[in-house]
Amino acid sequence: MPQSVSDPATSPAPPPVLGLRDQRLIAALQCDGRLSAERAAEVLGENPRTVHRRWQALIGDGTVKVIAQPVRPASVGALLLRIKVLKGKLDALTAALAARPDIPFIDLSASGDEISAVSYTEPGSRDHLVFRQLPATPAVASVSAATVLHVFSEASDWRHNVLTPTERAALTPTRRPSESVRPAASGPGPASGLDPIDADILAALSDDARTPAAVIAARTGHPASTVRRRLARLMADGRLSTQVAVDPRRLGLFIDANVMLQVPPDHLDTVGRTLARHPAVHGAFATSGTANLHAAVWLPDLTALYRLITEDLTGLGIAGVETVIVGHAVKRPGR
Hints:
Oligomer: single chain
Number of strands: 11
Radius of gyration: 20 Å
Shape: globular
Largest sheet: 8 strands, antiparallel, barrel
Distance between the termini: 29 Å
Helix content: 25-40%
């Protein structure tokens, strides 16, 4: 069974899969983006120098980027867009959408005629992009928008399934309960409840969430002790989280797909929570529309995708399933 739906004669070869040690070290950073090499080595049974060297190599060559995720205020909502595009018009429209800061995710379907995107907007508003700009664009054949009603999980919650539950628990920082807020996928920026010092710290982390406290202090002019104390508080309160940006193909996950489900209302919450716990799911959202539950998945091959649909989704009361294979991930946080 092929691992790609693209024509091998025209598609570039997929990047090489990383070794298990590197995959486990990346998974450790998913638990805590500011994790020390010493702590990772202690939990994973590695040499601290080896951990430090491999992290330096993976981050240095761009394989891995650790990005800061400040909270997204509840006043910011999201739309899931599906845009059918006329032949020959795809590149220009994709570039225009990618340039917008309010659109953090853009995928192109493997069929080459559909763009899937996430757009941030004010909940309940008549979004200008959806109602005016896209319909008036000659390249657009049709556009549909589903409003995100509830987030079960998103990209910053996903964990590569190569650590044991004990290892993952040991590497994950304990956080104090906080108000219901979600990490912002578009990078650091002004957020509700942040004072100027916190805002300065988040801005200093915008390019690299692993920036040492001493470097942040030098950039911002705040005392290093204040920076360390504020960082600890931001992380503990859930006001700052981290996300590891990495090409899933480097982790052996060659199939990227969006699965749209029709779920009866009395099953929706249970199915959404079940999907959010699935190791393949890096995003699960309850939405408006006929397909009222959307899941984004990464899997090793088409056989695994078929197994997800025919086995993992059975017995949950799901009434219908539509699957769109992603041919190219144009824009993702950190990439």
